[in-house]
Design brief:
The complex is a heterodimer of chains A (383) and B (399). By secondary structure, chain A is an alpha/beta fold. Chain A has 13 helices and twelve strands. In chain A, α11 (305-314) crosses α13 (366-380). The radius of gyration of chain A is 21 Å and the shape is globular. The N and C termini of chain A lie far apart (52 Å). Chain B has a seven-stranded mixed β-sheet with strand order 1-7-6-5-4-2-3, with helices on both faces. In chain B, 53% of the residues are buried. Chain B has 16 helices and twelve strands. Chain B is 40% helix and 15% strand. Classes of the chains: A alpha/beta (383), B alpha/beta (399). At the A-B interface, α1 and α9 of A face α1, α11 and α16 of B.
Chain lengths: 383, 399
Amino acid sequence: MKFRTRAIHIGSEPDSTGAVVPPIYLSTTFVQPGPGDWGAFDYSRSGNPTRARVEKTIADLEGAAGSLAFSSGMAATHCAMGSLEAGSHVVAGCDMYGGTYRLLHKICNRNNISVTLVHADDSKAIAAAIRPETKMVWVESIGNPLMSVPDLEQISQITNKAGVLLAVDSTFVPPCILKPLELGADIVMHSATKYFGGHSDCLAGALSAKTPELHRQLYFIQNATGGVIGGLEAFLLHRGIKTMELRVREQSKSALAIARWLESQRSVARVLYPGLASHPDHQRAVRLMGDQFGGMVTFDVRGDIETAKRVCKATELFGLAVSCGAVESLIEQPATMSHASYDPAARAQAGIRDTLVRISVGLEDPEDLIADLDRALAIAGGA
Amino acid sequence: MTSSSNSKSELGFGTQSVHAGEARQKPNDAITDSICCASTYTFESTQSILDYLKEGHEREEYGRYGNPNEKVVERKLAALEGAEDAIVYSSGMAAIVGLLMCKLSAGDEIIFFDQCYHRSREFCVKHLSRFGVVTHQVKTGDMVAMESAINSKTKMLVSESPTNPHLTVIDLESFVAIGKRHGIETLIDSTLATPYNLKPIEWGVDYVWHSATKYMGGHNDLLAGVICGSTQKLEPVRKLRGILGSINSPHNMYLLERGLKTFALRMERHNHNGQRIAEFLESHPRVQRVYYPGLESHPSHAFAKKTMKGFSGLITFLVKDADWKQTAAIIDKCKIPRIGPSLGGVESLIEQPMVMSYFDYPSEQREQFGIYDNMIRMAVGIEDTDDLIEDLRQALETP
């Protein structure tokens, strides 16, 4: 069965009621057959029927040995980092979500875990940064917000050889476009709040593991630390996944049209979208992703930090908000919003300029969205 | 788009699906609407109650009269339908009952085309009759028969378009013209078409009715019904709903609003899958006949092309030389569509009308309704087209 069919049917198999949509289990605890005699579910932190269904769907779509659903993307990332012992070293792509940067530099460092940031689309730099104590390479399959595309095939050869885990945050690239596990990654993380849920109404995270052993290790941490998704959110997440392929296909199509239009605007200095021939990693993106590149586009306006602010404030259809991947289009300024938790110096080093604007293209008609951006750019009046 | 409004016709259907009817800026600056579960709404003081009673400005009072979540959905549905107003109910049947109980009195008459949802027919024939309302049924699409059934007591002309399960598309121009000629209101059940494909209001129909459980909700996880029309005509209908109590719940309204966000996308896919699968079935040697308005072989293909953008996901077909058990065997062999009633969700469903809806009817009556033993109705979902075709192929060809 193909992706869309599996997204709808795997994990939604009928139960004893015949319900075409499985019931929502909010139960925190489950009655057991006898003392020390455990049933399939005992306590909802350890496992919940609604969560188990959505985990089954995600594992199938990712081609994983098993998946785990969390209360947020950061809870999932924290669980993955929880597999590292004190003294470990992580090599991470510098084109990275601000929250992950913060977790690595301000939380994981407390456990004596050190980080080296490199440009993830430079595989040689990754290889060179690996040290004897390196335990994990962490890259985003499309970097946030500079849209860099790492060569996951090449990097997985490097990590395999070095005996290091390759973990991929694929939040910008859902599995209907790219399956990192097939390219050699060991762990895939999604902020499932984004394309999986898709409707801006449930926080969720997901980890998918290549091997049963890794899945067991991560499950142990999830159960011990407790960042699990609740029953209602698991239901909404599952509901969203059913239209994910349709949504992402449409969003990719609209994003490419918008990126091309932005590129033709005098008030725009630079457009970053892997689907554009002008993108430095375009050929690689085509090789890894085919003809869909997701709904995230970033661009630099001509002007300064204030020009970018004015663009973000002037749109009427694009909502001014962080987050992405949902039916509603959103706009934001990474320097002051999604990547404000970077140290300013690190932001500058990574190349996140103050003039950068990030948009998440939703399901509105692309003509309406272009008209909205056209107006906003005119109002902002760049140099 | 400063505040909520119905007049967003300048924006595309996809944009309206996502944004129409919603406040641009919501409480607590949330991007999505909150779910307001309150059963009752409080007043600051006695004076504020008196002001509300005197001036009647819009606010909530008691949950049976309305809630913020249903109001958003009503505005969104009205915008998508191109109607002034919309009233949402707890189910499609609650909606038609709510409308007819308001508009008809003892001694009135109503005329139906005979291909229709069997519960609508049952409500009129068995129950409205107890209140002195007479129901006439005439052959579907026969405008002459409909017009000649009109008399001075006739109050409403009713049809589905397309009809269930024969997918007959009504010539809305003639249908509305009859109503106007005689000063009689018209009602179209547009559940199978949806406003993505057909907007009956634009053809002059007075009331549009949907089981919003189907394509509008789209995920087989909520029940809802809606009546669309002019504010003036719907005002007493809304008041009666407050008395009958068939309002939907805020939780359901949230799910319906969420479902509508992907409405345009889903319908495009239902249309695509429906057309491809109908063409596949028509070319298959085990299939005797396919009822799908997008096929040239369908008797009302011309009206379908005239009134509709696409033809949705419901397909009915007859299996060649099969009795009811041989027909059932094909259904049982399907691996992707689940067996069950309803339609319009992301999951494909399949059923045999003779078994699912008409098992208790004598066979002569079934024949009269055009429900044959070898008839299969498939509600095509949004799964991959080739997966569905391959599954049907194996179900038809596996001995």
